[in-house]
Amino acid sequence: MVGNLKRSRSVERLACSLAAAALVVVGCGGPDSSPGTTAGSPSSTARAASPASGATSSGPAAGSVRPPVGSGSSTTAGGAMIAADDGPLGRYLVDGAGRALYLFTADTVQGQSACDDACAVTWPPVTTSAAPTAGEDAAGGELSTITRTDGSTQVVYGEYPLYYFAGDTGPGQTNGQGSGGQWWIVGLNGEPVKTVTGSPAVTSGTTY
Length: 208
Fold this sequence. Notes:
By secondary structure, the protein is an alpha+beta fold. The chain is built from three helices and eight strands, in the order H-H-E-E-E-H-E-E-E-E-E.
């Protein structure tokens, strides 16, 4: 009788333990207990969204990149333009921008320039990349070119190669007129305009 009672209580304890275990499993649920979700999906979603939500760009937007400085600039094709202008010294040759042109009376050898090195710094030669052209009142038939010692092509009008004066900073200036008694602005006939009226010309001393 006592043995039967002990076995009955043992069976009851076992039954209660199994029932309690079943309730814990049902109550807590497993990894698939939440419908529509999978383990680790929230963190995966966050990682996928993070680069897009936090992305920034330190550069310009697509299509707004500026071209390199100067890439839109262009060089006028063709040769140097030689024209004429009026001033206090009369009518004389100028370039396409209106700057006065000079001749050097020491240029006595045809096809050569006597002004190189330091001289050419003060009196830059009028160079061209193609055949020079005649503008207003200039005679196209008087235009030709020579090759300088540095290989550049210098414009010639009549018998004389043409030069600028470094002391002229813009159109209408003839500050080199009469310098050293050898530098003169050029008349339409290709000859030197030897007048210094109204000009700060230096008629003696060095030529450059």
